[in-house]
Amino acid sequence: MSVSRGWSQNAIYTTHAWLREVLKSRCITRDLRWGVPVPHEKYKEKVFYVWFDAPIGYVSITSCYTTEWEKWWKNPDNVELYHSWARTMCLFTLESWMLMKTINVTEYLNYEAASGYGSIIPDAEGAESHSLTKALGEKDGSCVQKYIEAMEKVKLKQGLKDAMSISSEGNRYLQESQFWKLYKEDKPSCSIVMRTACGLVYLLACLLEPFMPSFSREVLKQLNLPPETQLSLSDEGGEVENSKRPWDILPAGHKIGTPAPLFKELKDEEVAFYRENFAGSQADRANRALKALRPNRWLNN
Hints:
Layout: E1 6-7, H1 9-21, E2 29-30, E3 47-48, H2 54-65, H3 70-73, E4 82-86, H4 90-93, E5 102-106, H5 131-152, H6 156-177, H7 179-185, H8 187-208, H9 213-222, H10 268-278, H11 282-293
Parallel strand pairs: 1-5, 4-5
Antiparallel strand pairs: 2-3
Organism: Anisodus tanguticus
Family: Belongs to the class-I aminoacyl-tRNA synthetase family.
GO cellular component, one term: aminoacyl-tRNA synthetase multienzyme complex
């Protein structure tokens, strides 16, 4: 099934399970509250399932970027197609005309369970002999290597986990360094910690760009780096050793931009809004809308 061994185990298991059951006809509608309504009186409370026509969309969107789109879809010896889907997508996207060598299948998302230095990056002289910082660099280098291996195998969940490990290590590093005390008692060490922390922020922007590109763009802005900056984990020679030296990623003297919160807390009313607008079915929405239109009637005893 997977000659190049590029399919994730989840993709293989899911496909085998369907083949064992014998392929069946699949409905192309869903009872959702959002989507394209089915233009038929009998199915007016249903919407088209997006994957009914989405596969051809991959081809058509390619033609929007280049007139040589056929070279991407009819050149299997030089072009490899990568996809990452939820498990239910396998059946709709494993068409013979777009069969890919590499496919990553994920499980479902359960969204309800689940100052002093100003803005100038200081020098970090002596960082390699700073035990806490050196240990952090070794951990970061290991995490980055694992991240690269996971992403090359399209193990996106593991890649994200490895990236977030660096975030956790960075938080621990800041707490253990007690930089607020260093600022008063040991300015050189505080400079090392601050410059290292700025390098970690850039490193995280690189690692998380495939998952949250808007986050990475905002980080570049706050680091005062041009928006056209090409985020990269490697140096000019293609090596990623700089991930072991986060204190060297951004130069001393670089002036960062204005810091601002990158994420906001979801209030209860916002959660309720999303649940109201995106959960349930077309029929549920229609019934609630109908009730809202009915006049209130009061019975007097």
